[in-house]
Amino acid sequence: MSIENVDLFDGLMPEEIQILRDTSVVREFAKNTVLIHEGDVADSLYVVESGRVKVYCSDKGGKDFVLNILEYGDYFGELALLDDDKRSASVRAMEASKVRIIYKEDFKAILDLHPNITRILNKNLTRRIRKLTNDVKSLALQDVYGRVVKVLTSLAQPAAEDGSMRIDEKLTQQEIADRVGSSREMVARILKDLTIGEYIDVDGRHIVIRRKLPESY
Predict the structure, then answer these.
(1) 194 contacts 165 by C-beta, under 8 angstroms
(2) Residue 93: beta bridge partners?
(3) Domains (ranges, CATH) in the chain?
(4) Other beta carbons less than 10 A from residue 27's beta carbon
(5) 203: which residues sit within 8 A by CB, 6+ positions away?
(6) Is 95 in contact with 54 (CB distance < 8 Å)?
(7) In contact, 51 and 98? CB cutoff 8 Å
(8) How many alpha carbons fall within 13 Å on the CB side of residue 21?
(9) What is the model's pLDDT at position 140?
(10) pLDDT by position in tens, the chain (length 217)
(11) Which helix (H) or strand (E) holds 48?
């Protein structure tokens, strides 16, 4: 995985990408290892080169709410490069994973010498924040069914000429519930009804969307 493929750095010159690569380090983490803890001092950007990690927050009762699942080419902790705040979420390896890390102190030294990187990064971060704002707004306005549909359709890829879509990621009902902020029982009921209605097929932990899902439950 090359960091030039990370959209955060879209628009940088090859020599600028090389500078970032030269100042980064690569680390490997075993399954279930926590890479960062919510509340930690933020001091680095991570780019996922292999494996999968989950980004999550925990409530006072210890229940985890999954914010995102990241894999090859995704990144997290980018705001650590620009501010001195603490981590807003935890990240745990779902499987053996390798990440490339750029530390803030190294990054600040680069910005002092290469102002174009600052300009490009600010532009790309603004675009990313706008997308996150829209995602949060969408989740807040939709009911549980709508959020489940949003998760399923965002993960699905074309599977056949008949227009069906397949989710290659293995998802449990609890993992879907964590993503949408609902109970496993509610998600199970929604998936059962969609299966009975012949909208989806559940093959083990893989889901196939046979036709367009209803807009309302």
Answers:
(1) no
(2) 53
(3) 3-140 (2.60.120.10), 143-209 (1.10.10.10)
(4) 12
(5) none
(6) no
(7) yes
(8) 14
(9) 60
(10) 567 778 888 898 989 889 988 999 999 999 999 999 998 888 899 999 999 999 998 877 777 888 889 998 888 988 777 777 888 899 999 999 999 999 988 888 888 888 888 888 888 888 877 877 777 766 665 688 988 999 999 999 887 777 889 998 888 899 999 888 888 888 999 999 999 999 999 887 789 999 999 887 7
(11) strand 44-50
Tokens of 74: 């995704």
Count the residues in the chain.
217
User: Scanning the structure block, which residue is given the tokens 């299966």?
Assistant: 195
Nearest to 41 by CA among 83, 70, 9: 83
The one-letter code for the residue type at 85 is: D
Q: Which two tokens stand for residue 168?
A: 């290659």
